[in-house]
Design goal:
The structure holds two protein chains of two kinds. Chain A is built from three helices and seven strands, in the order E-E-E-E-E-H-H-H-E-E. By secondary structure, chain A is an alpha+beta fold. In chain A, helix 2 packs across helix 3. By secondary structure, chain B is an alpha/beta fold. Chain B has two domains: 281 residues, TIM Barrel (Alpha-Beta Barrel), CATH 3.20.20.70; 56 residues, no CATH class. Chain B has 14 helices and ten strands. In chain B, helix 1 runs parallel beside helix 2 and helix 6 packs parallel to helix 7. The radius of gyration of chain B is 19 Å and the shape is globular. The chains are: A alpha+beta, B alpha/beta. At the A-B interface, strand 3 of A face loops of B.
């Protein structure tokens, strides 16, 4: 079984303001604004594996795991496409 | 809603050089330049506005005794840093500090090959500038070379570009000389209209020759589709050249004056009297640029196919013609346009 984990890339800066949460890749000059749920997921990245983020998110927002999987998957895919996060090497056990 | 994205902070008017063409007439620090404590407060306010990008310049910023402390403070507050410098004060010790900070790029002024450079900047400066570039590149830092193009430097540009590529410099920022500040009256340095066109051809040749090895940027380069800056401003199309028109940038003078323009310091506010967020929201000067209506542009700018993406220099239009919507007197396309206004005689003679 393999555990998928993501980590934040080096050089990503953040602003946690009253009305918004911003990410900034200073080397590329790319800015991204996260809504509340995306921010929640961002803060978990690097601290928990992918599956645990889904269950944590599902519990926090009180939504069913299938919907939570969709939400988390979409946010992760978006962050990955924009190069704010990267996959860590999968940890596989036999 | 116009969001402030980048601030250009002139930390001192002091400078170790006395360049002939300096638009800011830099040399001696101003009276009562912002203190470290005032700057800390200002940075906190910028943080609260969601600003990430800080560009530090002067004068020569490294002349300021606490400049490295300012950089470290800004870095600790998670800002992205750019530094504009003449490079002559950069040594190993400074590079060791810079490479551990979030320095996005360092822009080093280099005016041409040795003779051209030192005629403007003083003897001994060319080698010191090259040394700074070497130290920074050896440390793996991103370096841009900035050239203020004059009549005398035109013939140096291609050889200079070759040298910069050899030194692994990342970008070449071409800016045209404007006769203001200490450059006022130095019309012999101003490019004539034919020379401006020659400059475009030279920059295009440089771009083609060096391709991805040297990015071409800057307000002197009007090949907009190939200008690196266009990639950062995508759909906004509110001028890739002018931060004031784009409404996402402002400059701060060493004594706290806020201005939407670095060429003419239109007074938008004073950090010692008002917070930056208040100035940004309410300044009539900043709002005048925000409310700029490209449909009201006159002369050659009004007829230009690039009027949206460029907009021309409003400060120079105001300075030369007293008309905020006048044509940009420095634009080389003006000479070809049947709609051009009367051009100031100094530009025609050049």
């Amino acid at each position: 079984m393999c555990i998928k984990k993501y980590k934040k890339r080096n050089g990503i800066k953040t602003r946690d303001l009253d009305t918004k949460f911003l990410l900034y890749d200073y080397k590329e000059g790319l800015l991204m604004e996260l809504n509340g749920s995306a921010k929640y997921i961002w803060l978990l990245i690097g601290t928990k594996p992918f599956e645990e983020i889904i269950s944590d998110y599902s519990q926090h927002y009180g939504i069913d795991p299938i919907m939570a999987t969709d939400d988390v998957t979409n946010v992760i895919a978006d962050l990955k496409t924009k190069n704010f996060i990267e996959e860590e090497d999968e940890l596989c056990s036999s | 809603m116009f969001e402030l994205k980048k601030v250009s902070f002139n930390v001192t008017n002091g400078c170790n050089l006395r360049c002939e063409h300096c638009f800011a007439s830099s040399g001696v620090p101003l009276e009562r330049e912002l203190t470290f404590k005032e700057i800390s407060g200002f940075l906190r306010d910028l943080y609260g506005l969601g600003v990430f990008e800080l560009e530090f310049s002067g004068g020569e910023p490294f002349v300021r005794p606490d400049f490295l402390d300012i950089l470290k403070l800004a870095d600790s507050m998670d800002f992205s840093l750019e530094i504009l410098t003449n490079g002559t004060l950069i040594d190993d010790k400074i590079v060791k500090i810079l490479e551990n900070l979030s320095v996005r790029t360092i822009q080093i002024s280099i005016e041409g090959l040795k003779k051209t450079h030192e005629t403007l900047r003083g003897g001994g400066t060319f080698d010191r500038t090259l040394m700074a570039i070497k130290l920074l590149k050896d440390a793996g830092m991103h370096v841009q070379a900035r050239t203020t193009i004059t009549k005398n430097s035109l013939s140096d540009i291609e050889a200079l570009a070759d040298l910069l590529v050899e030194m692994d410099v990342d970008a070449f920022l071409a800016s045209e000389f404007i006769p203001i500040g200490r450059g006022l009256g130095k019309n012999d340095l101003v490019l004539g209209f034919e020379e401006k066109e020659i400059l475009q051809n030279i920059l295009n040749r440089v771009r083609i020759k060096h391709s991805s090895n040297l990015l071409i940027r800057g307000d002197a380069y009007s090949g907009f589709e190939e200008n690196e800056d266009i990639k950062r401003y995508g759909e906004s199309k509110r001028s890739i050249l002018c931060g004031a028109l784009r409404g996402d940038w402002c400059a701060i003078s060493p004594n706290g004056i806020v201005t939407p323009c670095d060429i003419i310091h239109f007074y938008a506010g004073n950090l010692r009297l008002q917070r930056i967020d208040d100035i940004w929201r309410t300044s009539p000067v900043i709002n005048a640029f925000r409310n700029f209506n490209q449909g009201l542009l006159t002369g050659s700018c009004g007829a230009c196919e690039s009027r949206v993406i460029c907009g021309g220099c409003r400060a120079l239009a105001f300075l030369y013609y007293g008309n905020f919507y006048g044509e940009d007197p420095m634009c080389w396309k003006a000479s070809k346009s049947p709609l051009r206004s009367s051009i100031p005689p100094t530009l025609i003679e050049a």
